[in-house]
Amino acid sequence: MNYFSFYKDGRALYCLIFMGITLAFSSTHAASSKRHFKFTPQQFQVNGTVTDGSGPLPGVTIAIKNKVNSTAISDYSGQYSITASPSDTLIVSFIGFKTSYIPVNGRKIVDVKLLYDTTTLQEVRVNAGYYSVKESDRTGSIARITSKDFETQPVTNVLATMQGRMAGVSITQTTGVPGGGFDIKIRGQNSLRSEANSPLYIIDGVPISSDPIGSFYTGTTFPTLVSPINSINPDAIESIEVLKDADATSIYGSRGANGVVLITTRKGKAGKTKFNVSASTGTGRVTKFLNLMNTEQYLAVRRQAFINDGRTSYGATDYDINGIWDQNRYTDWQKELIGGTSLINDLQASVSGGSNNTQFLLNGSYHTETTVFPGQFRYKKGGSNFSLNHKSEDEKFSLNFSAGFNSQDNNLPSYDFTSDARNLPPNAPALYTPDGNLNWENNTWQNPLRNLNTKAESAVNDLTGNAVLSYALTGELSVKGNFGFTYLDNTETRIVPSTIYNPAFNVGPSQSSIFTNDVNRSSWIVEPQINWIKQLKNAKIDVLVGSTFQSQRGTKISNFGSGFTSNSLIYNLAAAKTVRVLLDEETLYKYQAFFGRINFNYQQKYIANLTARRDGSSRFGPGNQFANFGALGFAWLFSNEKFLQNSRWLSFGKIRGSYGTTGNDQIGDYQFFDTYSVNGVLYNGISGLSPTRLFNSDFGWETNKKLEAALEVGFFKDRIFTTVEWYQNKSSNQLVGIPLPGTTGFSSMQANLNAVVQNRGIEFTLRTVNFNSGNFNWTTSLNFTLAKNKLLSFPNLASSTYSQQYRVGQPLNIQLLYKFNGVNPQTGIYQFEDLNKDGLLTAAEDKQIIVDLNPKFYGGLQNRLAYKGVSLDFLFQFVSKDSKAYSMSSAGTMSNKHVRLLESWFSQGDTAPYQIYTAGFNSAAVTANSQFNQSTASITDASFIRLKNIALSYKLPLSLNDTQCTIMLQGQNLLTFTRYDDGDPEFTTYGYLPPLKVITAGIQLTF
């Protein structure tokens, strides 16, 4: 017997979509019909557009004074329509703007320009995850940016939109190759394990796993593994809130130790159905090259190096100076290999609308981007998002449904050409022969373009769905259910065909190989909740109780194949002579929690917020699977006290603070089990097993205790608004590998270490409304973070495997270096301090000078200016930090060098910053150069001020009521002011492409 299932084959989704569109059009028709039958000769339709002086304002409420049931809401393009009499007065109101009273005076077209009312910005509701809170009533630390910040940036990664815009949030781009990732730290590094410092990401109430989906076998183009966060489309986002302190994060328990990133996607707004289409195109180039030697300088150094080494003749393989290569030839390899232009194209389209009860939005996007490398490589990203919101007529029942699908297709070389671009001799041969083939110059070099044939390809498909159903049982009691589902599929390949080798060596496809990586991950979450709100005479109580049930299943398999009969079969593992399974794993993560919140607000002056959560995780052994977390936050709105209520200069004042605990279970699955892995070694034709982990059911949760105090004040109706926050986080019970004796067969065992990591800092934000009158508006926003990380304790550090990595009382991100004492004027060799005075220079005893590579401070300065239809938005990002210079082999060896090395020692008595040249035969100089790169001499000031983003737009003055057209010019990373000489100061990972400078031009059409 067959049973019909409403959910089978996506019928539920189709029905919801159809229902939403039907309700939207029917409600709109009904509304217009209603107006038609009520039409009288004394009334007529008033139409117009509501703007803020620079762009349309959707969602604005337009009402008629002294009349009930006569309201309208502006649509996506800011347009409205309402029935009125010639003598009526329109009341136009919107959060964040001053309410306007505009007489109709018989006009049929009434355009409205609202002025910002910074005082009412405190009434904006901020997403705090399980609940929302007015900005003025917030007891926790929450940073927020909106779609206005995203729209001005030509970026594809959601983390890129946050750079330089939030206090306490440090974001660094890890590569300029399209599809690469970003590193994010919210208020510093809490865990000793670098992989355990990622925040929790939540999209429309659905947690997204940030565990990498890439593999080191296939992702060789990137310095870090590919993150699933790359799939998120910034253009589909309405706002991003970052939860930082205990009050804001403890309700997420173990998942909130490193902060929480809440992403809210765009939703439909009531009004006529509107279409929005935007298209842009642009280019990207490397921000800055290294200052390297030209041919004349390089050959002079090489020849002097041979003289210094006492060599009277050049070797047979010294092609650059022995006459084999043209000594008059010069190639700027940085321009040749990484100096190309990346072509960027972006297309966005959306349709939205609906009635007051039902709204919908459907949008789609498509993005393509090439690389700056030679060859035809392309990154493609596309997706679609759908949103449906419905509320019953009695406003008791509501349904919010959203779904998003994104797909990435990346075709890259599996080799980053940056290293070759910086090291090839400037007189190296031409890349191609006159007939267009790769030039091997009589087998004297490895042509870098051989790596164009080794490709890294990936395809990522990502689906996220969410439904929230709520019902108001009474005016005070409501129930809600949050349901979410995610699915991700990632397929990666890296091929190494025989065509990368010199044809003269006759290497055939039997030497070709392929690496594959396939990841599949799915999860579901169910969160029932009950909310009770009681309004008393002078107080308000808000109680929330809920639970979480979550499950995530993942599979990952990595294969290697080699020995093909033809390169055309290289993608077929069945055609490989040898096939090895490098990794084959299946994981199941289960999570269960109960949480609650009690908020008490007395007279809008004194606010207390208590949150608690009991977490259960399958990542810990019996007896340690559950843990309790909680926080208490408070706020005193002293500006509401009687003695300040009539203050002319103080418009808002609040002191708030919080203390609480959060946890961390980012340890991976099955870490407490006694596990075995297939080792690939055959015994009598049977593959054997090897023990990989010792059983330890005793280790449990990392714990992060957070303390914060803050002051928020606004002056002159909040035209000047500032926040100062002080925080201190202490992370203990660190989950690390405890060293074991080699006789056990294991190097370490996963366990809790009684080490304590502290993060302490001050965050400062300032917002000013410089001008807000007439046709000209100008606002400024500044954020500044001063942070300090410290390892407070680490028992038996000196005898542990971390003895040469950490120091108690110092930050985690330090380098232990030799102390550089300059160049010996007699020998011309670098000198270093022998700290223990034993006559030897050893790493264990003398490489002990501590250098902190954490940013000393960082922040951003943003300005927004608007005059009539023209708007200008620009952001300066600033960072103060030290970093390592780009290290190279000894000056005089067969690779290009920094121009600054021309200032080297030549003869006895010379005082020079750099040592004697050597072609590699002076062992003392070679060793000293290696130690130089590990000494204090390699540390340099990498502070910078960067024009991170600039956007100029102009709204064309069209006479069409229902059509708007805006042209845009946007730039990213355009200017950088720095003393750092070795390329881009933000990104200093050796051998990988730095971030790109991007310029795009586009057009946006709304109708």
Q: Would you give an account of this structure?
A:
By secondary structure, this protein is mainly β. It is 7% helix and 46% strand. It contains eight helices and 48 strands. The strands form eleven sheets. It has a 22-stranded antiparallel β-barrel. The chain is globular. It starts with 10 loop residues before the first helix and ends with a strand. Residues 1-41 have low confidence and may be disordered.
First CA to last CA: what distance?
51 Å
Mean pLDDT across the residues is 89
- Total count of strands: 48
Q: What is the 3D shape?
A: globular
Largest sheet: 22 strands, antiparallel, barrel
Give the structural class. mainly beta
Question: Ranges with pLDDT <50 over ≥5 residues?
Answer: 1-41
What are its keywords?
1007 residues, mainly beta, 5-stranded mixed β-sheet, 8 helices, globular, disordered N terminus
Please sum up the structure shown.
The protein has 1007 residues and is mainly beta.
Give the SSE layout.
Layout: H1 11-37, E1 44-51, E2 61-64, E3 71-73, E4 79-84, E5 89-93, E6 100-103, E7 112-113, E8 125-127, E9 132-134, E10 142-146, H2 147-150, E11 169-173, E12 182-186, E13 200-203, E14 206-208, E15 237-243, H3 246-249, E16 260-265, E17 271-286, H4 295-308, H5 333-338, E18 342-354, E19 358-370, E20 378-391, E21 397-413, H6 418-423, E22 455-472, E23 477-496, E24 513-535, E25 539-562, E26 578-602, E27 606-617, E28 626-636, E29 650-664, E30 675-683, E31 686-693, E32 702-715, E33 720-732, E34 734-739, E35 748-753, E36 756-773, E37 776-793, E38 814-817, E39 820-823, E40 830-832, H7 843-846, E41 849-852, E42 857-867, E43 870-880, E44 882-884, H8 923-932, E45 939-941, E46 944-955, E47 964-978, E48 996-1006
Parallel strand pairs: 1-7, 13-16
Antiparallel strand pairs: 1-4, 2-3, 2-5, 5-6, 8-9, 10-15, 11-12, 13-14, 15-16, 17-18, 17-48, 18-19, 19-20, 20-21, 21-22, 22-23, 23-24, 24-25, 25-26, 26-27, 27-28, 28-29, 29-32, 30-31, 32-33, 33-36, 34-35, 36-37, 37-42, 38-41, 39-40, 42-43, 43-46, 44-45, 46-47, 47-48
